[in-house]
6-phosphofructokinase
Amino acid sequence: MIEIEASYIAPFAMADPSKEKMRLAVLTSGGDSAGMNAVVRAVVKAAILKGCETWIVREGYEGLVRGNAEGHRHVSDKGICVSHKDVHFHEETFLHHLRYGDGELLRDGTGDHPGGRTLKGRYIVRVGWDDVRGWFAEGGTLIGTARSVAFRTREGRLTAAQNMIKEGIDALVVCGGDGSLTGADVFRSEWPKLVTELQSTGRITEEEAQKHAHLKIVGLVGSIDNDMSMTDLTIGAPTALHRICESIDNINSTAYSHSRAFVLEVMGRHCGWLALMASVSSGADFIFIPENPPDAEKWEDSMCKMIQSHRDVGKRKTIVIVAEGAVDSNLKPIRAEYVKDVLTNRLGLDSRVTTLGHTQRGGKPCAFDRIMPTLQGVEAVNALLEATPDTPSYMIGIRENKITRVPLMEAVEMTRQVSVAIAEKNFPKAMSLRDPEFSESLEGFFATSILESEPKLPHHLRMRVAIMHVGAPAGGMNAATRAAVRYCIRQGHKPFAVHNGFLGLLEDNVHQLSWLGVDNWMTRGGSELGTNRKLPDIDLGAVAAKFQQHNFHALLLIGGFEAFSALQILDVGRKYYPAFNIPLVHLPATISNNVPLTEFSLGSDTSLNALVDACDAIKQSASASRNRVFVVETQGGKCGYIATMGALAVGACMVYTPERGMNLDMLRNDVKFLKRRYGLDAKGKSEGRLVIRYSILRLVFSGYNRNSSTYVRNEIASEVYTTDVITKMFKEEEGRCLTLVLHLWAHTARWHSLSDGPCASGAPLAEVHELHRAPPRAVDQAVLPNSASASRIGGRHYDPRIDSEMGARAGDGGACGHEEPKREAFVVG
């Protein structure tokens, strides 16, 4: 885990004092995106912990070209006039790079003010630890970005090299799109010649030329379009998707009220990821993306036929999403206005166009756009420290939830091949160059949006599929149910809702679901079917009898660890009850993310965003009050996922989790840390401190605001050191601690605005595909060995018949939710 305050310096491998410190700068370039500030913050803090000196470059590459005017120099903030013997920090590196005083100017936007301290004439600015504190919660980029014309010229790059050498900088972190990263690689490749020319013309000395003979470069992808190859996600894309879905949610009410059709244009000049994921997440009726263009001669007929079929079954609203780069098969642009006219003229619909524009870029970053840039920023620093003149420039990405390094230009070249393939009308190649999830999501969209007149499967292969929610409600349950229901209907199966879990089954609370009946479930939180924690072993024989009575051929369980346990119980019960010899599938859905054998559960992302929103609001009070410690309690059972990831997302100083536990020594050190940290605050600006406690576990973090800090605690971190105990300890030692325990936070998380739409729609399709692995009419035959499966989001499914040790550990909420299974596994499609 990364962090954040001085108490976490010790675990990091500090640089060798005998070696010369690396001086690195970070800049943002190209279009802005949420999460860029988190990158800057992470790079600066990780670099300081590694013993480096850090700069930021204002206005992107343009700032490198302009450099610093003569006479301007960096002056430390005089607010850090404290006695080192009083605060007892061992790490001189931390103390010497705590604050340089320009952080507030950058954050408040007062850097160019003519009076007092100013950034005028300074584009390469020295920054310290506190200068970037809390930046991760801000949208856009506080250090500015620009598309530099001067840097595209060799003379401009020559000047940029001179400015960097003048400041002693020999490493550069660039956050931007493919154009910005290409510029960085060109700059690095030209560097030796640029240095030679600068020396020969007398612009730098021979000593400077020798000292800065090589330039280290690393790139991070900041792009809301998610258009970079060799990475699953780019910085800013998740937040942009949030903004789009929020807009669609707002439009849905007026569209329904007036029975209107809305055509939304979203960003995506060469990539349809935003349009596709927004369509999947919001339940749109039709979509236009550049990678999968419709037939030039037939698309109007196809669109009208699909939308009319939706209207024929009683649907009152129509949503069509168009990527700004959408074309037909002849590469003719498809404009939102033209689509609106087609809907109006051919179907007689009252149609409107909404262009979201730059609202997609704005707003505070979502949880994932705080966590991912933080992890990537730390990896970027590591990559620079390990770089040699012979290593390629790396791009930091994420693949299968792992932070990765890939050759920068290889990723850029593969990205450009998509545009070339589209220009050559080689659309299958364009799709193949996208992430596999892209194709799966497109398939999922069509499977849940097309209302087929005739089912795809013959009569003898059609099944009666029961769908049940088990456990606590979680965001995404209803969206998953909607996707499963519509896919079943498309194939010819009959989906049945089992209300109120296994208790409802015993009371015959079962009814068949319809295509239109689940239409509005996509954005609804909680559980429309009703759910509880009762397991089938309350009366296994009666449950089997109800399976036979309703003639179920398959069962889809959606829920958390209780649903996983129910799957195990039913699997064991096959020895005694033939009714359970049917395909059984579990889709993980829990805010705790504690289901074994899967990396993510539906609802966990929503819960993190609820925690972020709550802490952002709390820190406003902490900021205003100063000198305060807020204790926030979260949930999650005996799993520390929410606490740990929440700590990264809100900038925690420390985190207490059930997996790590806590003791008196740990608390004593934390209290000492608070005292020391207060002693280092700028005079007159003592920072507030915020503590977040998991209701079973505790997590502590430093707030984003310059006047607030937070500690996060898991609810089961310790049964002895409760939130009240921790608060009293802090209050006794500090005399300035305010307690705020969000006992209702978890319930708020369960009903928070959904952010799991893509996973909730795509994952159930794999689950229903899994049902097809069993033979036709499986209820009348012996079950296949692997026809009971627990889903792992990411495409892999596992046999739930794992040993008792694994099940026990999962029940205790240990780390087994992120371990590989100990027995047989198989891959689906």
Summary: The domain at 6-231+366-399 is CATH 3.40.50.450 (Rossmann fold). The radius of gyration is 28 Å.
